[in-house]
């Protein structure tokens, strides 16, 4: 889109303007891959589908979300690392190639979608604004805990041997590969502790990476990340640097988080909670929902406005149909906010 290299808050505000005041991003990725028949019972999780024999499924999920109205699609790289691919028997060169492919597949999907919009007059095209809406590729960078594949990103305990330098060294090559592959922005996701947030901020500075980025934290209540480290407000103020900040993979009932984050930064804030329930890393299952079921979280878009934010799914277990429902809810609102399905930017 020609927006790379701009200062992060301006990048997102400019993008919001190009979207006409509202923007929509995709929802759950692994859920859709499994629905299409992918077996993700593997340490690589959704990154397993970057292997050539399954890459068509990744492209299909991207296209399904674009058809549903997404303005931003996240790459299938959340759990993709060179180290992880090597542990599964791939060479370093193969691992680098698959990381690049995560961005390339998303770019291909965007091109296919744009081509459809140019040639196709079917109902999904809807109207000129829908056809010509801007679309960005966000390179998903999961936390170190995601690579460990032991549920660490849900508790934030990496052990005393893991330092800021350890995390910078771990993420450094991966981030550079994704940027060089042509991602429009970087999404550092499910951050469980202050240590990793600090590592991301220092890494971007050390490498002189100008690609806009956001950092999103995994929280256990209305003011603390899952590790039990000091408050989220301090995290954002101290370690977010020039990134936009927010939360993800967090229960949608923690409405106080939005007000809490607002006090920590004047930059755009993003929120993309799960659909409710608690993920149990040891068994790879979801525990009972805290009052939300199915698509019942969609009405929370409106209710969230009372707290200065909106609460709905979009990280785990959201679907293209979810996206359509959320899109219908948000476009009926006159607001200053930038809405993203499962991921909402608040321009304060």
Task: Report a brief summary of the structure.
The chain is of the alpha/beta class. The protein has helices spanning 8-18, 30-35, 55-67, 82-87, 92-119, 128-131, 144-148, 164-180, 194-206, 232-239, 256-262, 300-304, 320-330, and strands at 72-74, 136-142, 185-191, 213-217, 244-248, 269-272, 279-280, 285-286, 344-346. α10 (232-239) links the parallel β4 and β5 (244-248).
Strand residue percentage: 5-15%
Compute the number of strand runs: 9
- Secondary structure tally, helices: 13
Mean pLDDT: 78
Question: Biggest β-sheet: count, sense, barrel?
Answer: 7 strands, mixed
Query: Reading side by side through the largest sheet, how are the strands ordered?
Result: 1-2-3-4-5-6-9
What is the element string, with H for helices and E for strands?
Answer: HHHEHHHEHHEHEHEHEEEHHE
- Ends distance: 24 Å
Query: How much helix is in the residues?
Result: 25-40%
Mass-distribution shape: globular
Question: What is the domain total for the residues?
Answer: 1
CATH hierarchy, class = Alpha Beta
Structure in words:
GO terms for molecular function: metal ion binding; S-adenosylmethionine-homocysteine S-methyltransferase activity. One of its GO terms (biological process) is methionine biosynthetic process. It is a single chain. The protein is an alpha/beta fold and 348 residues long. It has one domain: Alpha-Beta Barrel (TIM Barrel). It is built from 13 helices and nine strands. The chain has helices spanning 8-18, 30-35, 55-67, 82-87, 92-119, 128-131, 144-148, 164-180, 194-206, 232-239, 256-262, 300-304, 320-330, and strands at 72-74, 136-142, 185-191, 213-217, 244-248, 269-272, 279-280, 285-286, 344-346. The strands form two sheets. The chain has a seven-stranded mixed beta sheet with strand order 1-2-3-4-5-6-9. A two-stranded antiparallel sheet has the order 7-8. Strand 3, helix 9 and strand 4 form a beta-alpha-beta unit. Helix 3 packs parallel to helix 5 (92-119) and helix 5 crosses helix 8 (164-180). The longest helix is centred in the N-terminal third of the chain and has 28 residues, at 92-119. Mean pLDDT is 78; it is low at 1-5, 302-313 and 333-348.
